[in-house]
Design a protein that fits this description.
Blueprint (H helix, E strand, L loop, with lengths): L35 H5 L3 E3 L13 H18 L5 E9 L2 E8 L5 H17 L1 H20 L13 H4 L6 H44 L5 H6 L10 H16 L2 H5 L4 H8 L3 H17 L23 H15 L8 H17 L6 H46 L14 H17 L5 H20 L6 E2 L9 H7 L3 H8 L9 E3 L1 E4 L2 E8 L14 E4 L15 E4 L7 H9 L3 E3 L4 H4 L5 E5 L4 E4 L2
Parallel strand pairs: 7-8, 8-9, 9-10
Antiparallel strand pairs: 1-3, 1-4, 2-3, 5-12, 6-10, 7-11, 11-12
Helix pairs in contact: 2-6, 4-6, 4-14, 6-14, 6-15, 8-11, 8-12
Protein name: PEP-utilizing enzyme
InterPro entries: PEP-util_enz_mobile_dom, PEP_Utilizing_Enz, Phosphohistidine_dom_sf
Pfam families: PEP-utilizers
Length: about 600
């Protein structure tokens, strides 16, 4: 075990048919000979939480946004003591990441600096968080007000009368750059509070581990749960719409088979039905602007939102309506979670000497304070901001195709963002001087080749990790969000012959034990297939999956840590969860009976 290693990134072969895949991505994102000595000595794990699928060249921007921002705020802004940033590489179209530890000799100095800088934020958290929401919502408005349309044959007369002084072609170039920079700026805000939020929780986590030997991770997490956050609002709105359908007397119509569009059309001639449809449409923006990516939301342009595809939330409204008619209470038991939170906190507090109560109270209070942001930022940025960014990007791609710069709008997403800037400039030049642009003929063979390579990359199964395993993992994000811990990596390398193929191990993220038939899902569009009493097995969940938690008895995910969305939501719903199993989706088949032990992190395949 001491000498065990994962494969070197430089020994991983290129999948058949994907030769030259490196040309799809930015050069600085790749493993390369000039960094081989450094990168072969580092531990890399597949970031299946954010990017479980092959990345389109244009979508590489999402990786770049958090790569730079997380690193800067860890390393340069707040001086996080144990770790610098999280480095990235793309290999065969998949993202691998590695935490970068701070030099041991710098930790004491960085800790003192961190205490000074972070304390200002902790002491003024509510005010700063209020400012943060305004900054992000201002960026959201900025992006939504951008418009991308085919360039006009002739500028409107207002350009003359209002002395605008610049052309529609210039504005197309300018607005694309603004779109990109607005997203980059938003990600600076993203990590303004998130790094130190995780640090505050990790401080409480470590205090509990020291004070209460043997305490489970989920017991610590439950001491900060039960808070009302905006992230749960979309699911609350689905419940409310179910209640409204029942109150208005249109429940039978809502429960009838058929797509959302058919339902809405059938209701608009009835006053009660029209009122309900109007309610839905008003609710949809912003509460149904929920990305449906597998796992972490917002990482891919290819996935719709609930607002784009109302059939997805309609499945849940119908389920809530059926349960309501059966006499069930469909509201989340937030009060019960809070009572359990306070009970656990009080019992552990009583185990401490009286002189230690103040320090414990301060730590748990701070952890609860930051927890709201840790959950809510997902709604503001991963959902609302990225949904707006992808929507405007698609609007741009349609405009470029209409102008003849592309054969198909989807072609744009096979270009890197810098190549899109070149494409726009070329199209604007042709429009400006009245000649044929070169873009379509220049990019056509490149896009065709990248489409072929992309398909080949999709067939590749990436190894979970690369390089030598670390002796210790202490970067807060890696531990709390991804669930990559020192023990987890040891388990990846361990010989599991003694347990046999019927046992999977992960992180016990929410307490309890449950059994049931497995339902393996890879995408939120499959939620309608879930039967009550089943165990959800998935890569990871996001808020788009929230309605499913009223039907299942337990959750098993391939990726995620104690503060991942899957873990937090399962604790809120009071159901067992095991996260970070690595390969549950591949190992378990729908229909197999499984037992999920949220205390020990063990998943047993009983069939």
């Amino acid at each position: 075990m001491a000498d065990a290693k994962f494969p070197s990134p430089f020994t991983i072969p290129t999948p058949d048919g994907a030769e030259g895949w490196e040309r799809m991505y930015n050069w600085y994102h790749l493993f390369s000979a000039d960094r081989q000595k450094q990168d072969e000595e580092r531990f890399w794990f597949a970031d299946r939480l954010h990017h479980p699928e092959v990345i389109h060249p244009y979508d590489e921007i999402m990786c770049e946004c958090w790569w730079q921002a997380l690193g800067a705020f860890n390393t340069r802004v707040f001086s996080m003591p144990p770790a610098f940033g999280v480095d990235q590489r793309i290999l065969n179209g998949r993202l691998y990441v590695t935490p970068v530890p701070a030099p041991p000799e710098q930790i004491a100095e960085r800790a003192a600096e961190f205490a000074s800088r972070a304390s200002h934020y902790y002491e003024n958290w509510d005010e700063i968080y209020g400012e943060w929401k305004k900054k992000v919502l201002a960026k959201l408005t900025e992006i939504r007000f951008l418009t991308f349309e085919p360039l006009p044959d002739l500028e409107p007369i207002e350009t003359i009368h209002e002395h605008v002084g610049h052309s529609a072609g210039y504005r197309l170039i300018r607005d694309f750059e603004q779109l990109v920079l607005s997203m980059y700026e938003t990600y600076q805000y993203h990590f303004e509070l998130l790094n130190i939020g995780y640090a505050a929780y990790l401080n409480f986590f470590q205090l509990c581990k020291t004070a209460f030997p043997g305490i489970g991770d989920q017991s610590i997490a439950r001491m900060v749960g039960g808070l009302r956050v905006d992230l749960y609002r979309p699911d609350d709105e689905l419940r409310r719409l179910a209640k409204e359908a029942q109150r208005l007397g249109i429940g039978d119509a809502v429960l009838a088979d058929g797509a959302a569009a058919e339902l809405f059309a059938s209701l608009v001639d009835d006053p009660a039905g029209a009122s309900w449809v109007a309610d839905w449409q008003t609710t949809a923006d912003p509460w149904f602007v929920i990305n449906t990516d597998p796992g972490h939301p917002g990482g891919y342009h290819t996935y719709d939102t609930w607002a784009d595809d109302p059939d997805i939330p309609l499945v849940s409204v119908r389920e809530y309506l059926r349960r309501l008619r059966a006499g069930e209470d469909i509201d989340r038991d937030t009060a019960g979670v809070l009572r359990e939170r306070d009970r656990i906190t009080g019992e552990y507090r009583e185990l401490l000497a009286s002189e230690d109560h103040a320090g414990f109270d301060q730590a748990v209070e701070l952890a609860r304070l930051v927890f709201t942001y840790i959950e809510e930022h997902v709604l503001y940025i991963e959902h609302w901001m990225w949904a707006a960014f992808w929507a405007k990007s698609k609007e741009l791609s349609r405009a470029l195709a209409a102008m003849g710069a592309l054969d198909d709008p989807e072609d744009m997403f096979f270009l890197r963002r810098t190549e899109v800037s070149e494409l726009i400039y070329d199209a604007v030049i042709g429009w400006s001087v009245g000649t044929q642009s070169r873009g379509a003929s220049y990019w056509r063979p490149i896009v065709a080749e990248r489409r072929r390579v992309f398909t080949a990359l999709q067939a590749w199964e990436p190894p979970p990790a690369l390089g030598p395993p670390p002796t210790e993992i202490n970067e807060p994000f890696t531990v709390m969000l991804w669930g990559i811990t020192t023990s987890a990596v040891t388990d990846w390398l361990a010989d599991t012959d003694g347990e046999g193929p019927a046992t999977l191990r992960g992180l016990g993220a929410s307490p309890g034990v449950a059994e049931g038939p497995a339902r393996v899902l890879r995408h939120v569009s499959e939620l309608g297939s879930v039967e009550p009493g089943e165990v959800l097995v998935c890569p990871a969940t996001s808020p788009a999956w929230a309605p499913i938690f009223t039907r299942i008895v337990a959750t098993v995910s391939d990726v995620g840590g104690i503060m991942s969305h899957t873990a937090i939501v399962c604790r809120e719903y009071g159901m067992p969860a095991v996260v970070g199993t690595g390969n549950a989706v591949a190992a378990i088949k729908t229909g197999q009976r499984v037992r999920v032990d949220g205390h020990t992190g063990v998943v047993s395949i009983l069939d």
